Amino acid sequence: MTSIGIIGSGFGAVAVAVELKRSGHTDLRLWERADDLGGVWRDNTYPGAGCDVPSPLYSYSYEPNPRWTRRYALQEEIHSYIRKVADKHGITPLLRFGREVIAATWDEGTSTWTVTFSDDSTETVDVLISAVGQLSLPKLPPIPGIETFQGTSFHSAEWDHDFDATGKRVAVVGAGASAVQFIPHLANKAARLTVFQRSPNYLMPKPDKPYKAFHKTMFRVAPVTQTVERGGIWAIMEQFAKGLKDESRVGRINKKIALRHLDKQVTEPTLNAKLRPDYPMGCKRILFSNEFYPALAQANVDVVTSAVAAVTPDGVVDADGNEHKVDAIVYATGFDAQNFLESIDITGTGGRKLATQWADGAHAYLGIYVPNFPNLFVTYGPNTNLGGGSIIYMLEAQARHMRQALDRLKAGKYTTVQVTDEAEEAYDREIQERLDVSVWSYCENWYRHPSGRITSNWPGATLPFAKRTKVLEPEAFSWS
Ligand code: NAP
């Protein structure tokens, strides 16, 4: 029996675990550094946290949830959904909490991975699956003086729930997907809210709505109705992803919708100008909100567009030299998405380090398989993130491909699988050629490694990825 260790317990880990368990792989364990499952949906508890992909699509295809309370579910509900899926599929007993993986080394003699944990203990498995995702390491900006601040400060992914913004002067650094969700909440409480927005984003209206009792009954009694809604949302998102091409028809329509949303919600010319992006739509993640612009237009809110130059013990200094005295700073500055798996010291054949192999940016066949690292599988790996669409759809596709590789090992003829250099290089060349002419190459964004390579995103809609990963191609791998 092949023993399989999965690092993480978010949507990716659960997708793989369910897929493998259903295929008869029973020697499975999931190592989780925290004391609960859920990945980003456990960690990101800021006010208003939720998913900007509609829930019927942001769920596993085999686990529709007729009980979603609204079309765009909030964090708590999504977290409870993943917990229920893990329970139902028998994944919960496989979870090992408080197990932070710090290193993994391939042993060529025994064809096993030795996994080391933060308490120096080790475990040995035949197959190692990383499901740590792309957004698990909150990133604080390298702003001079950041450590000198005397008030309350925290990252949006580590929200301080003891902090009450009522009557306080609060600064928010960043205006991305997370900030857009919590700024309306802070704006309603703070005496003064100063938003440091380095770049504006395209923001579209969010067609959110609560599901009524009638919808829930319909989804439960006639599940096909929810399947139809899911299919409709999926089809729209596929077009949305295709529209992420400069000057495509869908792209032009989306841009019109976004700018009309801005003009309608922000009529004051100075603020309107600050919020108007000047780069191709889609280059940075397109955001959705009905409350963000009205919050910024409130009298107690300022938007500062000059860069943050320094943090002092009692405030933030902008690049124009103005000091903004505040009681609290919230950093909504995103995640260390580029250094894939860097927090784990992974050593493959011949002592090769994964960090060295990926020094110029991570790359992997189908985002999953890495040459020189046998029996290592990566879920939500390089070039599998989306500019539009449900990542869960992508995770399921990856899980199906991994399952086929592991079924071949389970069959007993082989003990190791490793992608060939040729297959991985050809795949990477193709993906990079497509990304070079994609909208993401037109501006600064978190999808790009400092080397210039776009390492996060899949270049296109989700169906082509699902098709490409549907059937394992044995010739792309060496089996032994
Ligand atoms: P983000 O999108 O990376 O945004 C970071 C923000 O911080 C940007 O506005 C960025 O400005 C700013 N920033 C970074 N360093 C700065 C500095 N030194 N000085 C001033 N500003 C700085 O981070 P996020 O909002 O946490 O979202 C990250 C990702 O998480 C999203 O793209 C998305 O994939 C995911 N997410 C998803 C949802 C959802 O609803 N599905 C919700 C939240 C997050 P620039 O734009 O100029 O770099």
UniProtKB/TrEMBL annotation:
Q: What InterPro entries has UniProt attached to this entry?
A: FAD-bind_Monooxygenase_sf, FAD/NAD-bd_sf, Flavin_mOase-like
Q: Does the keyword Oxidoreductase apply?
A: yes
Listed Pfam families: FMO-like
Q: Among its keywords, does the record have Flavoprotein?
A: yes
Which key words are in the record?
FAD, Flavoprotein, Oxidoreductase
- Give the PANTHER family listed for this entry: FAD_NAD(P)-BINDING DOMAIN-CONTAINING PROTEIN-RELATED, L-ORNITHINE N(5)-MONOOXYGENASE-RELATED
Q: Which family does it belong to?
A: Belongs to the FAD-binding monooxygenase family.
Q: Can you name this protein?
A: Cation diffusion facilitator CzcD-associated flavoprotein CzcO
Q: Which organism's genome codes for this protein?
A: Aeromicrobium panaciterrae
